[in-house]
Amino acid sequence: MRIAIDGPAASGKTSVGRVLARQFGCRFIETGNMYRAVALGMTRGLPSAAMTIDITEDERLLLNGEDVTGLLHTPDLDQRSSEVATRPDVRARLVALQREMASRGDVVMEGRDIGTVVLPDADVKIFLRASSDIRARRRADERGDHDLTGTREQLRSRDERDSTRAIAPLNAAADATIIDTDQKTLAEVISAAADLVKEHLNKRWHGV
């Protein structure tokens, strides 16, 4: 089973995806971390062709064998990873790697182009949507950042770049179920997403 979760930054993809993976016995892949790792490597002077990236079963990200998981979630790498994602060479390498990871078994994969590009034939496609104000508040709370205006501007800049890039822009797949999370608690969003997975499994079991 392959579950694709897409949406803009701070829309709740990681929180929802991780719980779904645990609930249905799937591996969880946070693809944004892969782009952050490439961006980190570039700040160290490494060309993308010289980088190897892997994600362990317990969600640790390895860059050339080094566990860099704890270094990836900074405002600087948020922006740099979005810029890196516009490069055709980087996208081609990471999309191929993401597909290979998905081929190993049941997976919940989250990102911005999973349902449209990486896994266009995913069994379940979910697109999480939230307003910029709500997402800015969530991101600021998550990182203990009290500069809500600055956080909102960073998200706006990233949204624009992700949505207008020539390669794999952020869009909901035509067959994705859109869940608007503004007026929902995390538990409610998880429940709605889990219901979609259960519906798929029910159809599979009954040969529909």
Plain-language structure description:
- With 208 residues, the protein is α/β, with parallel strands linked by helices.
- The chain has a single domain (2-30, 75-205), classed as 3-Layer(aba) Sandwich (Rossmann fold), CATH 3.40.50.
- The chain is built from 8 helices and 8 strands.
- Strand 3 (53-55) and strand 4 (61-63) form a beta hairpin.
- Helix 1 (13-24) crosses helix 8 (186-205), helix 2 (31-43) crosses helix 3 and helix 6 (132-143) packs across helix 7 (148-164).
- The two termini are 15 Å apart.
- The model has no long low-confidence stretch (mean pLDDT 92).
Provide the descriptors you would attach to this structure in a database record.
single chain, 208 residues, alpha/beta, Rossmann fold, 5-stranded parallel sheet, 3-stranded antiparallel sheet, 8 helices
